[in-house]
Amino acid sequence: MSAALEELKSAIAFNADGLVPAIAQDHATGEVLMLAWMSAASLEATLATGEVTYWSRSRAKLWRKGETSGHVQRLKELRIDCDGDTLLLLVEQTGPACHTGTRSCFFRAWREGGLVRIAEPMAGIGGNG
Q1: Which residues contact 76 (CB under 8 A, 6 or more apart)?
Q2: Does the pTM of the predicted model rise above 0.85?
């Protein structure tokens, strides 16, 4: 493993489960697409391939975004917050980021005292992130 990769991993404050939250943001528009978790292994896979790989807590295994749906995320830039406890992934998103078929997982908003849907699934696209 390279010294640069070791330096990066040592700058990240992984939690007790060995995970760190990672926010995916569209590199061109700034739209926040989703939040998922990364492990050291998923970080290494992401940097090695350029395609974002997360740690699936529900499946307890590495999960390359788009491996079943084809809606991949290509990493453009990785940023670390000031405390090292959150990652920001600037990505190029193919298709919807959300398993519901919406462009972003943040498709509901609290407005005027109620929760409202502010985005619909992309036309002709099913879910399964």
Answers
A1: 27, 90, 91, 92
A2: yes
